[in-house]
Amino acid sequence: MEEHTGIITINGNPLTLVGNELKVGELAPDFELLDNDLSTVKLSSFRGKVIIISSVPSLDTSVCDMETRRFNEEAGKLGKDVQILTISMDLPFAQKRWCGNAGVDKVITLSDHRHASFGIAYGVLIKELRLLARAVFVLDRECLIRYIQMVEEVTDEPDYDAVLKAAHKLL
User: Can you tell me the distance from the alpha carbon of 124 to that of 101, in angstroms, rounded to the nearest whole number?
Assistant: First the structure.
């Protein structure tokens, strides 16, 4: 399995990413993750929409909380042709509780806790923590990767304007 260093840090300390290094223009790997009700969700079920995938370490941290709330607000403005997914290693029960408490109802939260298959396929699994790195992928209606933002410092928020600009180009 591939390992990559020098891409991200946490509090300035380097971390190791495990998995494939994806590139713009490639077909996004399909995945099977758990929804908040424990049902299986595949990326391919969103084909036909512009998809923003927000990978976060844990919804129960302040930065992930702010990021997911912000994307939930933006989802309301983007319309029905865009689907925002937030993926973490949190258990589906924790995601459901968090969404209810935060009033998040437009972003779909999905759990990669079982096999870390999303983390490995998208190259965002943090070896030292078994959490996902903070990254954003924008996919077109055919699930081709059109934009990737790997947030260098895990404790920083993504550049929302750049993500939204990339999504708007695909509408």
Answer: 27
Both tokens of residue 125?
């699994």
d(CA 146, CA 130): 27
Q: Compute the mean pLDDT over every residue in the chain, rounded to the nearest whole number.
A: 97
Is the pLDDT at 1 greater than 90? The verdict is: no
In the chain the domains, ranked by start, together with CATH numbers, are 25-169 (3.40.30.10)
Catalytic residue among 64, 75, 121, 163: 64
pLDDT digits (tens, 9 = 90+) for 142-154: 999 999 999 999 9
What is the DSSP-derived secondary structure letter of residue 157?
P
Looking at residue 45, the DSSP 8-state letter turns out to be: G
CA torsion 58→129→33→70, rounded to 10°? 30
- Predicted pLDDT at 97: 97
- Phi–psi pair at 101, nearest 5 degrees: -70, -35
pTM higher than 0.85 for the full model? yes
**How many beta carbons lie within 10 A of that of residue 133, not counting itself?**
25
Q: Is 143 a catalytic residue?
A: no
